[in-house]
Design goal:
Blueprint lengths: L1 E4 L5 H8 L3 E4 L1 H13 L7 H6 L6 E4 L2 E4 L2 E2 L7 H10 L3 H20 L4 E4 L3 H5 L7 E4 L2 H12 L8 H17 L15 E4 L5 H14 L6
Parallel strand pairs: 1-7, 2-6, 7-8
Antiparallel strand pairs: 3-4, 4-5
The site of cytidine-5'-monophosphate has 14 residues, from helix 2, helix 4 and helix 8.
Length: about 220
Amino acid sequence: MVRSHQAKEQSPKKLALRLEGIDLYTGAMYRSLALLCINSGVNLENAKEVTSRLPDLTVAYVQGRILLNDADVTEAIQDSAIAEGASIIAVIPEVRKELVRRQQAIGKEEIARGKIVVVEGRDIGTTVFPQAVLKIYLTATVEVRAKRRLLQYSHQENAPSYEAILAHIKKRDERDSKREIDPLAKDPEKLGYFVLDNSDMSERETIDAIIVELKRRKLLND
Ligand code: C5P
């Protein structure tokens, strides 16, 4: 699943629950590496230094929580500075190669155990699992995504403004679309994606639409 143009939300996790499968949120790896680098004073623009931190990075998915070297960073990696940092280090080819390798290993292991795996990230259908049985390009307008993100920050002190969030999302999309390696798919339909714009849909409607598509393709029984 490419959750490319949408604010962070729980849909993939809930879809995985409905399918009694596993949710693999790949952004957590990029975000965790950014956090690790920031905490250890590594300049995110310095590809060599960032790459040298990869052997120190262990990201584990445990009961819906993200563990970075055994520390629970589930909330910490949602910070907008970390999202920005993740998109900076995500342009580094060695970083992508290693994280894609790790994602493929986790996915294959779960599939071998007979699990349905819902993989979320911007390069999943093109690079990580190009043979996935259903590739979803989940999209929404930047304004809707910014509003969703604002809602998520509502309980936080010093929450960024709507305008700041909007500008931030636009900048990140641009960086993710223009990077040389694994950019966001430009013409997802041509690449075989099921394109779903959920700007006017609730989370429940989004998941229902995916279930309908899975059934239509006979990937799921009625
Ligand atoms: O999906 P999420 O918003 O958590 O991703 C944060 C950043 O990590 C993205 O903006 C993108 O630059 C990078 N990323 C990526 N490939 C993925 C997942 C995330 O390049 N599969």
